[in-house]
Design brief:
Length: 343
């Protein structure tokens, strides 16, 4: 079968992406094989392509943690009823499900399809049967753009930060997949939102999607502008995946009792912070990674019912993946880039 593989590690990743022939995988015990209709690019694909530490896999690597398609084979212990169904996968399989109720992330140890094992940037992929959901006649392009980013943002906002109607939520770096997913979820929950970007065009598009306030990030501390939008009180929640470049502005933007939730650090992990603000204002600093199947079922049901939908930047064929990776690495996209494997 054909697969989009990163041939060797390093940055930039785009020149190292090639379409190659690889063996078609067979599902093992408890797994299903999915004939890919569409797969979505995430910044995670870039990290894996660069040679993310801790990934003990040889090159070339097939990435892809968002995949949708038709089940065409099942492994042992999997009911044949799955055959022929269109499914969306949660790429994160919990290897250590011992978390107690109310402690969603306490015992999790995720194995991630597309990181620790070959992913959905191919004509077929395998995944645990317990990690797929039947989505019927849903659009596979939209579904492939939805999964991982909305699961990540849902956990950040609800499980970790406890977002409620009326909360002010700060979302820096609008245009990325998690940031736009968070914006849509905030709209669904009835939260007010402040978004930032270095692009005036992206701010305008975010406003059209329901953002309450937009701040043009010109590389300086913008926390006073964010606080002014809340009449000086500060935001209740910050949802961040950027890291070092915006961290201090985010911390300074939080009001008393505010929650800062991070799921990534695309601009670097070594951020300057403000411990005095953190203890004096009783701020919470929370890490968040992906999500479990209960959370995935909840957020996918909102997609299937039409309450949430992804923002799609472009749809490409497999032959266009080098350009897609280049756009992602440069941060030019506004929304998800989806690969249509039927083209």
């Amino acid at each position: 079968m054909k697969a989009a593989a990163v041939m060797t590690g390093g940055a930039p990743v785009a020149p190292n992406v090639e379409i190659i022939e690889v063996p078609t995988p067979s599902p093992g015990a408890g797994e299903v094989r999915v004939r890919t209709e569409a797969s979505g690019l995430n910044h995670l694909d870039v990290w894996v392509g660069m040679g993310i530490p801790g990934v003990d896999r040889p090159w070339p690597r097939v990435t892809g943690s968002d995949g949708v398609g038709i089940v065409d084979a099942v492994g042992s212990d999997v009911d044949d009823v799955w055959l022929g169904r269109r499914v969306i996968m949660n790429a994160a399989h919990d290897l250590n499900s011992d978390a107690r109720p109310g402690e969603k992330s306490a015992g999790e140890q995720f194995h991630l399809v597309g990181e620790q094992s070959p992913g959905a940037m191919a004509e077929a992929f395998v995944v645990r049967a317990e990690n797929v959901i039947d989505i019927g006649d849903a659009d596979p392009i939209a579904a492939a753009a939805f999964g991982l980013t909305h699961l990540t943002a849902w956990r950040m906002l609800t499980t970790r930060a406890g977002a409620r109607e009326g909360d002010w939520v700060l979302i820096p770096g609008i245009g990325g997949g998690v940031a736009l997913a968070a914006l849509g979820i905030c709209r669904y929950l009835g939260c007010r939102t402040i978004v930032t970007s270095r692009s005036a065009e992206k701010l305008e598009r975010a406003s059209e999607l329901g953002a309450s306030v937009g701040i043009l990030d010109e590389g300086e501390d913008w926390h006073r502008t964010a606080r002014a939008a809340t009449d000086g009180r500060g935001v209740d929640i910050c949802i961040d995946s950027i890291g070092r470049a915006v961290h201090l502005s985010c911390i300074k933007s939080l009001g008393r009792g505010g929650r800062f939730v991070t799921c990534g650090c695309t601009s670097g992990p070594a951020a300057e912070t403000d411990l005095a603000r953190i203890f004096w204002n009783q701020l919470s600093i929370l890490g968040s990674t992906m999500g479990d199947m209960a959370e995935f079922r909840t957020v996918v049901s909102l997609f299937l019912e039409g309450h949430l939908s992804p923002v799609i930047d472009q749809v490409v064929s497999p032959s266009g993946l080098q350009g897609a990776y280049a756009a992602l690495e440069a941060g030019r996209q506004f929304g998800k880039i989806v690969v249509d494997w039927r083209s």
